[in-house]
Amino acid sequence: MFIPYSIIGIIVLFLLFGLFHVLREYERAVVFTLGRFWKVKGPGLIIIVPFIQQFVRVQLRTIVMDIPPQDVISRDNVSVRVNAVVYFRVIDAERAVIQIEDYYAAVNQLAQTTLRSVLGQHELDQMLAERNKLNSDIQKILDEHTDAWGIKIAMVEIKQIDLNETMIRAIAQQAEAERGRRAKVIHADGELQASEKLAEAARILSTQPQSMQLRYLQTLSSISEEKNSTIIFPIPIDFLSTFIKK
Fold first, then answer.
1. Beta bridge mates, 160
2. Which of 67, 158, 184, 223 is deepest in the core (most CB within 10 A)?
3. C-alpha 230, offset from chain centre
């Protein structure tokens, strides 16, 4: 049977078109020959035999994945809503294709469960004050689980911790009470220091009776500057004793 040259040409072009492929610098091709893994190719120009070989493209660039907000109950029974972001990349294209069906979805689900598990072991104050430590703990756990998939977790960042209105008011009241406690402690420390200084001044003045008279005159001088009021100032007998003797 005669086959037109045009059909033969189309078949040849189709085979040639499926034979050559170009991969970018950040891409790799996991090649299978008759269903069995052969090798990882790329980047640049690669040759794939049609109908015999198939390949899967894998990107090696860092992927930024946003973890949906998760409802977490802390160790002190406080309900919070937390969302985070995970930075990861493929370091072994072969394992990322063969060992896991969809590594992006797997990392997403694993990150959600790990986030709830780690934060649930800490109290609310620790979540708010030790965020860097929590990020490091979550990253370490994720990295251990995804290593078998050829995935490297570069960084985990907790973006936001949302509280309900009742808990926000409770925290505000707690902060206000703490500030009041500090103010009272500072005031008490000031009174203690002042009493110690006054006691020391009294001991010094008691050793020199003339110093009491000088202090009395200094007090009169400072009061005389206030001209908008009438002040009745008692005169001690000891002060007049000098004049009486004379």
1. 83
2. 67
3. 63
